[in-house]
Specification:
Blueprint lengths: L9 H8 L4 E6 L7 E6 L2 E7 L4 H16 L5 H4 L4 H15 L2 H8 L5 H8 L3 H10 L4
Parallel strand pairs: 1-3
Antiparallel strand pairs: 2-3
Helix pairs in contact: 1-2, 2-4
The protein binds zinc ion.
Zinc ion binds next to α2 and α4.
Length: 137
Amino acid sequence: MALREPPISVLDCLDRWDAREILVLEDRLHPGLRGACNLVDGRWLIILNRDDVPSQARFTLAHELGHIVLGDLSTAARGVDSAEREALCDRFAVELLLPASALRYAWHGRPEELALAERFQVTRRALRRRLRELGLR
Ligand SMILES: [Zn+2]
């Protein structure tokens, strides 16, 4: 199986998963809220926090895709007491944006952390955590 080349396109993944139309908007959200997704009139509406840096917004988009894959139809319906669900969607985002095989391959040349984060279009914090998790540093 061929390696997925970073950066992974989250919207391509969503397109392949779900044929419904997707609208991604950026808006100012309640502090502490990074994003939301809802099925509205037969199409997905994903809202990202416009104050987030692009790499964080990308992680949030992948996280919201996790909710869609899990069949969570709306942020409001999930309520606030869903820490386990949120952790699962974070896990989904990490696996999608930083696939182990592609990251191990890219790590072989021992690139600069910043260059690697830019290549995968993730935050340095997310990259560091994933490298530790995979036992690469
Ligand atoms: Zn969530």
